[in-house]
């Protein structure tokens, strides 16, 4: 009798409650779609067309004022930008094309000395 219970045909005839493991998803999360009503959130009521245009214009003006004033409002203690050591695309000393316009690290003195970059000194 035991042999008949374990026979392949008997096991096939039993109803399956779950699909085989190779057909099931291994993820335990439930997929959500953008049309899901859980993602619909309340918002402010829409403005009339005239007021919406006025609002967008005011926002645009405020953003351009902030962008323009960012360059002008530098801190008084901020360092001035470094000036280029040469004009054009080719460095006359090294012959490098398209490189930095100024040597990034300079020496304070000839021979053994400290190196500096934008006023900050390091000793190697």
UniProtKB/TrEMBL annotation:
PANTHER family, A to Z: SUCCINATE DEHYDROGENASE ASSEMBLY FACTOR 4, MITOCHONDRIAL (PTHR28524:SF3)
Biased composition (Basic and acidic residues): 72-86
Classification via InterPro entries: SDHF4 (IPR012875)
GO biological process: mitochondrial respiratory chain complex II assembly
Originating species: Bondarzewia mesenterica
Lineage: Eukaryota, Fungi, Dikarya, Basidiomycota, Agaricomycotina
Name of the protein in its database record: Succinate dehydrogenase assembly factor 4, mitochondrial
Family in the record: Belongs to the SDHAF4 family.
Signal peptide feature range: none
Region (Disordered): 62-112
Domain of life where this protein originates: Eukaryota
Any single Gene Ontology cellular-component annotation: mitochondrion
